[in-house]
Prior knowledge:
alpha+beta; Beta-Lactamase; 5 helices; 6 strands; globular; binds methionine sulfoxide
Amino acid sequence: MDEGERGAAARVDYAALRRVCASLTEGEDDAVALMATLACELHHSDDRFDWTGFYRVVAPGLLKIGPYQGGHGCLVIPFERGVCGAAARTGEVQLVPDVEAFPGHIACAASTRSEIVLPVFDASGATIAVLDIDSDRPDAFDADDARELAALLADTFTR
Ligand code: SME
């Protein structure tokens, strides 16, 4: 079946998503509650998103899984490893069109083909987590996704 027969695939409307997340999280400052809400809303907003979740900075140089949607994810990632570790270590968005070409990629699912990982900063500018979105589609993410996702994270975690 092509997309037409299956019905138009869902593609996230980032402006609407930001409004919904702002409304759902108004007045909340608990980071885990905020992450759980964003993981849920993001995951169900776009057919490209096959795993959506956070890894939290729990100690210097160490990430531990946080709220997520999708199949099970690995529990602990040191900053030296994986796409998540690279985002946490550098403080920069990791836009990975082909995970098999990324040195040290950690495959939580054999079906993952591309990935985007963003650092999550708090109001002081400290990295408190990373947001990881995996897709079973190759080259699923672009600079627009990076810009819009960074804006959603800033809305939520730096207020
Ligand atoms: N792919 C990530 C690991 C997290 S699982 O994909 C949920 C990485 O390479 O850091």
